[in-house]
Amino acid sequence: MHYISLAVETIFINNIVLAYFLGMCSFLACSKKVETATGLGLAVVCVLGLTAPFNWAVNHFFLREGALAWTGNEALAALDLSFLGLICFIAVIASTVQLVEMVLDRFFPRLYTSLGIFLPLITVNCSILGGSLFMVERAYTFPETLVYGVSAGSGFALAIISLSAVRKKIRYSNIPAGLQGLGMTMILTGLMSMAFMAFAGIDL
Amino acid sequence: MAAHKRTIIDPLSDNNPITIQVLGICSALAVTVQVQTAFVMACALTVVLTCSNLLISLMRNHIPSRIRMIVEVSVIATLVVIVDQVLRAYFFELSRQLSIFVGLIITNCIVMGRAEAFAIQNRPGASILDGIGNGLGYSFILLLVASFREIIGSGSWYGWNLFPEGYVGSGLALLAPGAFLILGIIIWVQRTVTQNFKDD
Questions:
Q1: Structure ipTM over 0.90, yes or no
Q2: What is the model's pLDDT at position A172?
Q3: Residue of chain A whose Cα is closest to the Cα of B22
Q4: Cβ distance of A177 and B197 shorter than 8 Å
């Protein structure tokens, strides 16, 4: 039950895009077509679902204060390497993305071609690194991290697919010149985020 | 000399990283509840951007082009760790308010974008100017958004109360939707004023 409530909270109430503004760049740039938005959304679900647990393990067994106690060496056990967190996380993310890319290329060539350039771009998507950093800051346990990673990715997918559907609808609308493109998209996102705030009352 | 001046002035308005190039939006929205946090974030980003531009420009002839992304990310990550540790040591309260967003400078598209688009093919001097210029352009929009949000939302600016007792702040400006709407309107005004309708 606790995990379901964490998932609902992460997808709807604290949506990673609409409430925390993470991954805005690709959210705005790749939401022109529903197909590309779906591809990017799925890729983010996969990568976030993998990197958050990986980074949890890195943080738990190597970085946090006293994490190296399993080596049995007292000098190592006293170390607090958490300042290396950022560098380690981004390295884990970059290599995971590379790995996912190779696996997809080998076993699911169709999915690989449809995702195209989105996979490498995901390395620099803030929502991925943000997921790992939130996981550390909120001190999630391993199962919680797994649920959090997948549902934060799903939240991103939900938001980008709905935005792309709205943008498709307004393509032929008569919008003032200065507001076309980015300006209108920001305002649409604002309205969507307002709608998502309605979920805030839900308490499981 | 004129070219150098353009490198600094251009990103302030005509080629602003946030409103025209659409880079680095995440942090522009997330840290702008108060002017103070926005100011710290703007300084942090400008420092990281200038230093990373300088370092990458110095190394530009020695980086094999196939692994340049990894080199750029590691340079940026190192600088961000330094800035993060300095903030934690001297401004602990502020760094707690900024929470993960200082760390997210690593994946801020502006830093990576300027390294790729400018520093990798220009001399160190010009790259520093480009870093400062884009940092200022980013800071300008950040402070503008933060001013609107803090004045409308809490009736103060940089912590000073502007209105007499009894002003009730509009909660909307402090929440996520307010940030999106205000930035949308700023983009509208700026594109109309500069007549720059280059669409993405």
A1: no
A2: 84
A3: A25
A4: yes
Which of A18, A25, A125 has its CB closest to that of B25?
A25
Query: What residues of B are in contact with residue A171 (Cβ under 8 Å)?
Result: none
Q: A116: which 2 tokens?
A: 């195209």
Q: Which residues, 6 or more positions from B16, have their beta carbon under 8 angstroms from its beta carbon?
A: B137, B140, B141, B190
Which residue is closest to B83 within chain A, CA to CA? A83
CB-based burial label for B44 (10 Å; 0-12, 13-18, 19+): buried
Q: Using the predicted structure, report yes or no on whether residue B12 has a pLDDT greater than 80.
A: no
Chain A closest CA to B1's CA: distance in Å? 33
Return left, alpha or beta for B199; rule: phi > 0 is left, psi -120 to 50 is alpha, else beta. beta
Question: How distant, in Å, are the alpha carbons of A146, A159, B11, B67 from that of A11?
Answer: 14, 9, 36, 35
Check if the beta carbon of residue A33 is closer than 8 Å to that of residue A114: no
CB atoms B175 and A197 under 8 Å = yes
DSSP letter, residue B65: G
Cβ-Cβ contacts under 8 Å, B194 against chain A: none
Q: How far apart are CA A186 and CA A181, in angstroms?
A: 9
Closest CA to B72 of B25, B124, B109: B109
Tokens of B135: 């940092």
What integer pLDDT is reported at residue B199 of this predicted model?
54
Q: Cβ A137–B104 below 8 Å, yes or no?
A: no
- Name the residue of chain B whose CA is nearest to A177's CA: B197
Structure tokens that stand for A112 in this block: 């690989």
C-alpha distance from A193 to closest chain B C-alpha (Å): 5
State the smallest CA–CA distance between residue A124 and chain B in angstroms.
5
With an 8 Å Cβ cutoff, are B179 and A21 in contact?
A: yes
Q: Is the Cβ pair A180, B199 closer than 8 Å?
A: yes
Rounded to 5°, angle at Cα B27 from B88 and A37:
135
Across residues A45-71, what is the average pLDDT? 87
Say which of A21, A85, A191 has its CB closest to residue B30: A21
pLDDT band for position A142 (cuts 50, 70, 90): very high
Look at the alpha carbons of A179, A185, A186, A190 in this order and tell me if their dihedral is positive or negative.
positive
Q: Percent helix, strand and coil across chain A, each rounded to 5?
A: 80, 0, 20
- Spell out the alpha helix ranges (H) of B10-123: 25-30, 35-58, 68-90, 92-98, 109-117
